[in-house]
């Protein structure tokens, strides 16, 4: 389990359009929102990423970068980016499943074709949403065991406004005896 205020695992993946996303060298002044999604096969992911695309400028105004990541390869990632009509949202691909597990994501097995007729990969990670500080420590984290009931980006933007205004620390950091 990742712990607030502790360093997250390293994350360096190829970016759609060229280059590399490397969490250790991100330059956003207040951190990065990392949205792990299931892949092209998931219609809920496409709608969720459309919402993130719409909020990417709002995050940027607050000094926060955004990235969408899955274990899909480059071609499937390109397809979902086109479906989402991504302009500001970056997409990274080829997430190794061991790294997904290191981030605390759940791993699922294929059930064949989805409701939109796209084959699921043999193994893929379930969704997770994280905000990581510029020092690469966990500020916020949420993981799901399935595609339903995800945090809303508009609420995260509002929470970020509160956190900035009140210098609100990451919570859930206690690891001592109970």
Q: Helicity level, as a percent range? A: 25-40%
Strand order in the sheet with the most strands: 5-4-3-8-9
β-strand percent reads: 15-25%
What's the number of extended β-strand segments? Answer: 9
Query: Whole-Å distance between the termini?
Result: 18 Å
**Structural class by SSE content:** alpha/beta
Number of helical regions:
4
Please state the average pLDDT score.
97
Detail the poorly predicted runs.
Answer: none
SSE order: EEEHEHEHEEEEH
Computed CA radius of gyration, to the nearest angstrom: 16 Å
Mass-distribution shape: globular
Main sheet characteristics: 5 strands, mixed
Please give a structural write-up.
This protein has four helices and nine strands. By secondary structure, the protein is an alpha/beta fold. The chain has a five-stranded mixed sheet. Strand 8 (128-132) and strand 9 (138-143) form a beta hairpin. The chain starts with 11 loop residues before the first strand and ends in a 12-residue tail after the last helix.
